[in-house]
Amino acid sequence: MNDVAIVRLESVSRAFGTVVALNDVNLEVQRGEIFGIIGRSGAGKSTLIRTINGLERIDAGRIIVDGSDLSALDEAGLNRVRRKVGMIFQHFNLLSMKTVFENIELPLKLAGQPRDARANAVWQLLDMVGLRDKAGVYPAKLSGGQKQRVGIARALAGKPAILLSDEATSALDPETTLSILRLLKELKGRLGVTIVLITHEMSVIREICDRVAVLDHGQIVEQGAVWEVFGHPRTELTRRLLRTVRPPLPETLLKDLRPQSVEGGRCLLRVDGSGAEHYAAVLALLAAEPAWQTDIVHAEVDRVGGHPVGSVTLSVRSRQDALRELLATAERQSIGLEVLGYVDG
Amino acid sequence: MSTDDIPLFATALGETAIMVGFSGILSLVLGLPLGVLLVITHDDGIWRRPIFNRVLATIINGFRSTPFIILLVALIPFTRLIVGTTIGTTAAIVPLTIAATPYYARVAEMSLREVDRGLLEALRALGATRWQIVREALLPEALPGLLSGFTVTLVTLIGASAMAGAVGAGGLGDLAIRYGYQRFETDIMVGVIVVLIVIVSSVQIGGDRLARRLNRRL
Known about the structure:
The complex is a heterodimer.
Chain A: E1 5-16, E2 19-30, E3 34-38, H1 45-52, E4 60-65, E5 68-69, H2 75-82, E6 85-89, H3 100-110, H4 115-128, H5 144-156, E7 162-166, H6 174-191, E8 194-199, H7 202-208, E9 211-216, E10 219-225, H8 226-231, H9 236-242, H10 251-254, E11 266-272, H11 278-287, E12 295-304, E13 307-317, H12 320-332, E14 337-343
Parallel strand pairs in A: 3-8, 3-9, 6-7, 7-8
Antiparallel strand pairs in A: 1-2, 1-4, 4-5, 9-10, 11-13, 11-14, 12-13
Helix pairs in contact in A: 3-4, 3-5, 4-5, 5-6
Chain B: H1 6-40, H2 50-65, H3 68-74, H4 76-83, H5 89-113, H6 117-125, H7 130-161, H8 172-181, H9 186-214
Helix pairs in contact in B: 1-5, 1-7, 1-8, 2-5, 4-5, 5-7, 6-7, 7-9, 8-9
């Protein structure tokens, strides 16, 4: 058994009538990481995250959370696990008839902690999310971002080892989204809590996740470190999802692109930028030979989890023999180089 | 109508207050748990018991579809068993309570059903037991609706208590029938109606105000 896996799903399946929500899902979340699950709506994300705290039961498979096998637990046992697994929601789900303070206090009250200890903990949590001055306010008077901060404080009140985030930023504007994501990242660093989040936004994955799984029709079609998946998406779905954060080549370039070389024309090459030093290596190869007449037509490079991710598209003179040689060299040096097509000179 | 009639009104008002007050409180105490049971044992509730739910709903509907004047008479043996007499103000409280309890149970059920399911899920995610979910989320969140529903129940009880004269319970309705109708003292009839309008309006306005003050969603 792997000690660092805090959440493990083994061949988990779940159907609602004839609709298969989860189909043989295998997943491991490491202690202390932020694990993202992305997919379109209806992919099964919500069901998947709800299996981790037993809100959703499963038809087949096994789920192990911090050493406990959920399928072996009764309702009381599940409740014990749930107190160690916090959860935040898209629509915050704060109790409207309780103040901010009372909302955050609730998990401690449910766990039977004495009043004095509770108050102390709540003030600390309020400071942590920067809402000390809102303690006596009712949720209806808060902005979306503030509501989610209360949601986060409530979820962390029981000092959980795991925090589940169910589209926690989907109802927020981009700026607030960013501030909530930064808060989550900061809290992960400070408290060492493991975060499992689901989202339909690649930007959320890019911003805070260490690893990502892509869910489609109840199945995991791809998973790995975020920078790897971003750099080398293996499925069409992932590429489509990535389009929102990595714009494809401009239309003006694509419309003139042809599959065959044109006499005296130029060739478009894409250098895959995931991993270090690739750009320099290819540019060095091309720069060494003036006959290429190298030009950069499109480039975008980003850093994801500390790794460069992106691509540079170059336009060079179409010299077939030299091109073959160049591609062979690039492959020997493990440089991602791809011929996109040809354009007229 | 003269000042001589004031004691008459005072007595009748007192009898109505006792009947409505006691049956109101009793129907709240008995009806609220029934309303909670109706909601949590429902198919999408937090304590699914479909058969129990259907049986309970049927019994409640049975009582609700029986006209109060018939209930009043039909319950006479039961009333004797509970309070030892079948006539008078105390005796009227039993059928009034039996009529208002299922009524309030349904009204409460409607308010409780309005509570956002996301809140119940949040409580489950926090490891709350069913009883904790009811106490911390279901009841507090539905409070304004539960209160408005209780106001409506009280108003209905004031109306129903007029019929309690049939078992000699007295009250404002009885005063109107005996003096206003049977003895052609139209001024007493008008007086009773005015008093009833004032009472019903105050109960309704007071209830609405309290519900609004308690509502934190605004």
